[in-house]
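subagent[fold] <- orchestrator: predict structure for attached chain, return tokens only, no commentary.
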Amino acid sequence: MPHVGQVIEGSEGVRATVTRADRDAYEVEFVYPPGSGNRVGAHLHTRQTESFEVVDGRVRYVLDGVEKEAGPGDRIVVAPGVAHVNPWNVGTDDLRVRQRVEPALDFHVVIETLLGLAHDGKLGPGGKVPFLALAAMGDGIESKTYRPGAPIGVQAALFKLFRWVGWPLGYRARYPRYSGAGS
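subagent[fold] -> orchestrator:
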């Protein structure tokens, strides 16, 4: 289980420090060097509200198909079911942004796994998360995340199928070396 103060290292200087970890909310403060940020692309959460508070720096993000910019003190709130792209650093200095997910469910597994895969160099070109990794997580955890556009039921069925395709290739919903949870 995550604990307050835990630091999770990604790649290229990205790191997250856990600032809250309970059933009601999971919050991390990310540090993104210039030019870095979200690598997942457009997505939505069906059961959780996600918010981002810019502490230092300038970000761009996409909310419901519209690209916007935010700075220190701005808070971006994403309701369940709303398509978005997480903030990325558009400044020349490190970005500090707090990401909170409510309720927490098992969202810590998402953060630990994505940053762990990045740290181990297991992401695709440009830091993109491989589809089979997303399928394994999508079928294996409570914190459900989907792509906008395609029906969620179809995506859920495909995640179940492709989770088993990815299993022999080493993709899991949880990795003990990243989260301490069983695979």
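orchestrator: received. Logging for downstream: The mean pLDDT is 87. The CA atoms of residues 2 and 21 lie 6 Å apart.
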